[in-house]
């Protein structure tokens, strides 16, 4: 090490050796300093000046009180930040104060408010790819949420879990799994930073010890964690948190095991295709099922709503219990409105707890907690006063935290300063010694005047004055002529030409108190804040229970408001495998896209004659909306929501599968057709008789013969082997021939023809469609008129059964080659013209389709 380096710089380098992957924030007084490559990197990201110090060491710095905003920018840039603090005010040994890293900030371990999405969890994931299963753990350190899950080794299920929890960071262990790289690649593709802890730590005994130490228990059996995979995933995530947070994180809730028997597993295709949380256009939450249902007023409520949408229930009794609560708030809407009003005053209690645990004891956090408790207690009193089991149970789930709220209220000022260093924090009357010192500071001038007048009067010294300067402090000044009249209790401090300066024990004591008053105030106020923090942490379990209860109440009231606002009805359930919906509507399309009144449609599926519905009809007529509607209504019912229909009687389904649309997945090297076949294979391998499948086009990514053959075979397989209730929208008119089989029924979307064109009526009725109206849709899409005219000409000749198509140019008619319309190439032409698929077709794509058609003809 360079002998010219300062002791502080040597200390920096020693600490930096242990944190090569992080940008090191090195505390020096009121700044965090960065040096060497860290400084170069950070200065560019943060747009701050890069300077240098002795030995031309690159450096930059930020004020410590503004660190959060700078850390946020570094985290967003994909960096990790190690916070190195001074551990003492003065050196206890050696030339520099002790310093060490107290925390490592990573995307999955942040607790700072401005680093967190306000209405979403910020999960860290632990992933273990085993030979036959995948172990998953998810922790949100900002809320204390902790979930465990074990799934079969399936890429589709794995993707579904990752989409559902949307982790910001992952601790990954592939072990000896031969296909572990594929799962790691998926994590990388989603831009989730993946880190690995030492492999030797993945030992059952070691990880058991980590879990027990974290929760202060003697064994994991009481937590319901006994399987090796659960212990490993839970232990790994806790070990990573220990490595990054460097201190206890006692606010973590006990891990909650997600069982496949409790909640429906949704794969990523279903979550994405149904636009449950995020839309397909810009990836935001607007114009989604979440946005239709979201009338929540709290962060806990929003997270609860998202969590419940992604985990539909499988137990009918639990669903009915939720529906009973929603029904109650639906019927007693005024009560729901009153509670809804209280909810707006509740802050994010879960994240407040996490900030207290890591020592972020700003007075404003206590005030936010106090206001939240007051509002929560109003809700508890309101619900407790209702004579119904549903509301009483909700009220009982809210612990009584009034004493904690009163403790905060009696301790802190109504509007405390940012910190004791910035002004008064502790309420007047709470601490007598603190009040005395504040009074002393406030009345110092009056005390001086009073003491001066008392001394003057008592000693008869008219020239006596009490003064102050920075060198002597406070002193009593008497003229030379009267200096002989001072008593022995006066101690001389200074002699001047015309006067003498003295002090007294009383004045010295006053001076000492005045000069140390600010320091004493800060010390006493910080001591009281620490005591208050202890009270909050002692009530941690009650606060977490209250946060969960508030989230649930907000969720239920949100569902009731959504039901009233959107004219939903309560669904009923049956054990006969029947899905019957009368006048169903798609809630998202109806709310955001319908220019006129939404046209409702019926759904009827069962395990006998109506297993599969094959739906044909024009593009843009509403086939896709219809089948999505069925899936959304089913999902809504199973989360305990009312549904958009006049009537709904449903079977409980164990899975909802979707095969809707497709596009090339360039990142994974998958063509449109391969994406389509992967999704189809997942459905066929995992669907059961109790599932619901919606399929919108099978085989469109390949040739007509191949696509038709695959679609036909898939429909037959579902009917013969799976008997899964299925809505099958297709552009292959030939599939309607399957309508003769028992269990398969043809339906189509009505169209009204007139001289100027056609009107799509969006009404689904029994029977097969006889036309696709693809050319009409191409015209609507803006295809140039000459191309439309030529396509109509070709179609007319084909529909008349002619075996040749003449050239579009009369001068070339004699030379035109006769085209055999029944060979394989021309069969493609027939199908393409009849069934141009433009649900998502742009004008350019339509031109490409017609260009392909033209090449086939030529």
SSE layout:
Elements lengths: L6 H11 L5 E6 L2 E5 H11 L4 E3 L3 E7 L3 H10 L4 E6 L12 E7 L18 E6 L3 E8 L4 E8 L2 H11 L3 E5 L6 H10 L4 E2 L8 H12 L12 H18 L10 E2 L10 H6 L15 H5 L5 H11 L6 H16 L1 H11 L5 H9 L5 H22 L4 H9 L4 H10 L20 H11 L1 H16 L5 E5 L3 E7 L11 E5 L3 E5 L1 H34 L1 H26 L6 E3 L4 E6 L2 H7 L7 E5 L4 E7 L6 H16 L8 E5 L4 E5 L11 H15 L5 E5 L7 H19 L2 E5 L13 E12 L2 E10 L7 H7 L4 H15 L24 H11 L8 H15 L1
Parallel strand pairs: 1-5, 7-10, 9-12, 10-11, 17-21, 20-24, 20-25, 22-23, 23-24
Antiparallel strand pairs: 1-2, 2-4, 3-4, 5-6, 7-8, 8-9, 13-14, 14-16, 15-16, 18-19, 18-21, 25-26
Helix pairs in contact: 6-7, 10-20, 11-12, 11-20, 12-14, 12-20, 13-14, 14-15, 14-16, 16-19, 17-19, 25-26, 27-28
> How would you write the strand order of the largest sheet?
3-4-2-1-5-6
Low-confidence stretches: 664-669, 802-808, 810-824
Distance from first to last alpha carbon: 78 Å
CATH homologous superfamily assignment of the largest domain: P-loop containing nucleotide triphosphate hydrolases
Residue share in β-strands:
15-25%
Q: Helical amount among residues, as a percent range?
A: 40-55%
From the alpha carbons, calculate the radius of gyration and give it in angstroms. 37 Å
- What's the CATH topology label of the largest domain? Rossmann fold
Sheet of most strands? 6 strands, mixed
Number of helices: 28
Number of strands: 26
């Amino acid at each position: 090490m360079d002998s010219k380096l300062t002791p502080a710089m040597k200390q920096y380098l020693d600490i930096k050796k242990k944190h090569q992957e992080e940008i090191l924030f090195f505390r020096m007084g009121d700044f965090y300093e960065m040096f060497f490559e860290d400084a170069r990197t950070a200065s560019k990201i943060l747009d701050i000046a890069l300077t240098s110090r002795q030995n031309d060491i690159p450096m930059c710095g930020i004020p410590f009180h503004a660190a959060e905003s700078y850390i946020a920018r570094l985290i967003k840039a994909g960096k990790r930040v190690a916070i190195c603090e001074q551990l003492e005010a003065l050196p206890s040994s050696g030339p520099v104060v002790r310093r060490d890293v107290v925390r490592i900030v990573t995307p999955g371990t942040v607790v700072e408010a401005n680093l967190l999405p306000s209405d979403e969890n910020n999960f860290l994931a632990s992933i273990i790819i085993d030979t036959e299963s995948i172990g998953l753990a998810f922790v949100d350190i900002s809320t204390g949420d902790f979930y465990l899950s074990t799934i079969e080794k399936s890429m589709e299920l794995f993707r579904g879990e990752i989409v559902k929890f949307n982790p910001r960071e992952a601790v990954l262990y592939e072990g000896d799994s031969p296909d572990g790289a594929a799962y790691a690649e998926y994590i990388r593709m989603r831009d989730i930073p993946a880190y690995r802890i030492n492999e030797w730590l993945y030992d059952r005994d070691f990880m058991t010890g980590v879990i027990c130490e974290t929760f202060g228990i003697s064994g994991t059996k009481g937590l319901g964690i006994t399987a090796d995979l659960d212990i490993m995933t839970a232990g790994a995530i806790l070990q990573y948190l220990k490595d990054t947070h460097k201190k206890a994180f006692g606010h973590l809730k006990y891990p909650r095991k997600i069982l496949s028997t409790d909640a429906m597993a949704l794969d990523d295709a279903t979550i994405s295709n149904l636009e449950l949380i995020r839309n397909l256009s810009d990836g935001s939450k607007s114009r989604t099922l979440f946005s239709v249902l979201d009338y929540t007023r709290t962060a806990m409520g929003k997270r609860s709503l998202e969590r419940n949408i992604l985990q539909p229930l499988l137990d009918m009794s639990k669903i009915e219990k939720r529906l009973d609560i929603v029904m109650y708030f639906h019927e007693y809407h005024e009560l729901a409105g009153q509670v809804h009003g209280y909810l707006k005053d509740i802050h994010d209690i879960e994240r407040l707890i996490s900030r207290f645990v890591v020592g972020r004891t700003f007075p404003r956090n206590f005030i936010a907690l106090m206001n939240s408790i007051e509002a929560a207690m109003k809700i508890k009193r309101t619900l407790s006063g209702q004579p119904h089991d549903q509301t009483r149970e909700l009220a009982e789930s809210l612990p009584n935290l009034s004493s904690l709220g009163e403790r905060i209220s009696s301790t802190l000022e109504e509007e405390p300063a940012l910190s004791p260093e910035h002004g008064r924090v502790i309420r007047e009357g709470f601490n007598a010694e603190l009040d005395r010192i504040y009074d002393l500071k406030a009345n110092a001038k009056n005390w001086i005047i009073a003491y001066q007048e008392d001394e003057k009067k008592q000693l008869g010294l008219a020239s006596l004055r009490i003064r102050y300067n920075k060198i002597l402090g406070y002193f009593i000044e008497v003229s030379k002529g009267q200096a002989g009249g001072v008593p022995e209790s006066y101690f001389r401090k200074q002699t001047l030409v015309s006067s003498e300066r003295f002090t007294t024990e009383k004045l010295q004591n006053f001076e000492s108190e005045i000069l140390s008053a600010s320091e004493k105030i800060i010390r006493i106020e910080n001591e009281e804040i620490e005591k208050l923090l202890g009270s909050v942490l002692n009530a941690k379990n009650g606060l977490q229970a209250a946060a969960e209860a508030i989230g649930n109440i907000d969720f239920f009231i949100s569902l009731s408001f959504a039901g009233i606002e959107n004219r939903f009805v309560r669904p009923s359930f049956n054990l006969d495998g029947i899905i019957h919906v009368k006048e169903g509507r798609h809630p998202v399309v109806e709310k955001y896209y319908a220019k006129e009144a939404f046209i409702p449609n019926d759904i009827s599926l069962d395990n006998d004659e109506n297993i599969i519905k094959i739906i044909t009809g024009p593009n843009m007529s509403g086939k896709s909306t219809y089948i999505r509607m069925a899936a959304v209504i089913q999902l809504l019912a199973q989360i305990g929501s009312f549904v958009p229909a006049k009537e709904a009687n449903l079977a409980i389904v164990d899975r909802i599968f979707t095969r809707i649309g497709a596009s090339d997945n360039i990142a994974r090297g998958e063509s449109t057709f391969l994406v389509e076949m992967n999704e189809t294979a997942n459905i066929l391998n995992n669907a059961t008789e109790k599932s619901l499948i919606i399929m919108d086009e099978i085989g469109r990514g390949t040739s007509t013969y191949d696509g038709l053959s695959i679609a036909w075979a898939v429909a037959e397989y579902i009917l013969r082997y799976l008997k899964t209730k299925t809505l099958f929208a297709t552009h292959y008119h030939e599939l309607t021939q399957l309508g003769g089989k028992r269990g398969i029924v043809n339906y189509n979307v009505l169209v009204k023809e007139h001289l100027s064109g056609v009107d799509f009526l969006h009404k689904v009725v029994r029977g097969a469609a006889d036309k696709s109206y693809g050319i009409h849709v191409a015209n609507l899409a803006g295809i140039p008129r000459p191309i439309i005219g030529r396509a109509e000409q070709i179609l007319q000749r084909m529909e008349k059964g002619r075996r040749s198509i003449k050239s579009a140019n009369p001068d070339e008619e004699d030379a035109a080659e006769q085209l055999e319309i029944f060979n394989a190439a021309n069969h493609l032409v027939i199908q393409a013209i009849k069934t141009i698929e433009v649900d998502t077709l742009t004008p350019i794509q339509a031109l490409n389709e017609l260009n392909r058609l033209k090449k086939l003809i030529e």
